[in-house]
Amino acid sequence: MKIRRLVLLGCAMILSQAVRAQVATAMFDGSMSQLFGSNATFSADMEIRVAAPNNQNLSMSGKIVFDSGKNRLERALIDAEAQARHLDATANKTITISRPDTKTIYLVYPGLSAYAAAPLQDPNAAKPASSFKIETTELGQDMADGHECLKKKVVVTDDQGKAHEFTTWNATDLNKFPVKIEMNEQGRAMTMTFKNISTSKPDAALFLPPADYKKYDSPQALMQQEMMRRMNTPPANHP
Questions:
Q1: pLDDT tens digits, residue range 144-193?
Q2: Mean pLDDT throughout 95-121?
Q3: pLDDT the model gives residue 172
Q4: DSSP collapsed to 3 states, the chain
Q5: Domains present along the chain, CATH in parentheses
Q6: What pLDDT score does 173 carry?
Q7: Is the N end or the C end of the chain the one with fewer CB atoms within 10 Å?
Q8: Confidence grade of residue 233 (pLDDT, cut at 50, 70, 90)
Q9: pTM of this prediction?
Q10: Cβ distance 161 to 153 under 8 Å?
Q11: Beta sheet of 104-109, edge-to-edge order
């Protein structure tokens, strides 16, 4: 019974982390993509912090790879509770791939050699830059992570009239790359920072799940299968 509870807990934790990764990718939507200007391709280490009024704060770090709207977010999911229960071997990493061109999001689990595909929900993801109106107000010079930056207020309005307001720190030594972005919507204050930035074009294979991984129709289906597999696997004998 104890093993079964641990299995259920482990799968629930993995699914919860998958939802967090999906939320992070949703934050990096079509409107936010307009903030990168001529930096159409890049890779960087990224940290996201979200403060919510109900104290449901979120903090995550990982690596972002971006190519003209397509993006890939890799993040470690080492959780203290998971480590205590020796569940991190399966849950230590997820990869979220957003494909506006095919309106698909992939949640990839290297520890399970599996991935789940789902419809991409962002209606702005595949829209061209001409679908957005961008209004910029300069707020002066500032420093961010050792870079001299031009701080700006940026309002991005889509072709449906929905506006999103951001504060950006655009590094003068990195082709005005926004090394720091802040926004506040629906009671959530978000800060996104980027380090170790490269603007080289990434390999196209990074935006596809591995061909030898098993595909599932949803994260729930994947976790259900994993739960059944664990329940039916006898525990290892330890000396």
A1: 989 999 999 999 998 889 899 999 999 999 999 999 999 987 777 889 99
A2: 88
A3: 95
A4: CHHHHHHHHHHHHHHHHHHHHHHHHHHCCHHHHHHHCCCCEEEEEEEEEEECCCCCCEEEEEEEEEECCEEEEEEECCCHHHHHCCCHHHHCEEEEEEECCCCEEEEEEHHHCEEEEEECCCCCCCCCHHHCEEEEEEEEEEEECCEEEEEEEEEEECCCCCEEEEEEEEECCCCCEEEEEEEEECCEEEEEEEEEEECCCCCHHHHCCCCCCEEECCHHHHHHHHHHHHHCCCCCCCC
A5: 2-231 (2.50.20.10)
A6: 94
A7: C
A8: low
A9: 0.78
A10: no
A11: 133-144, 147-157, 163-171, 177-185, 188-198, 41-51, 58-67, 70-76, 93-99, 104-109, 114-119, 214-216
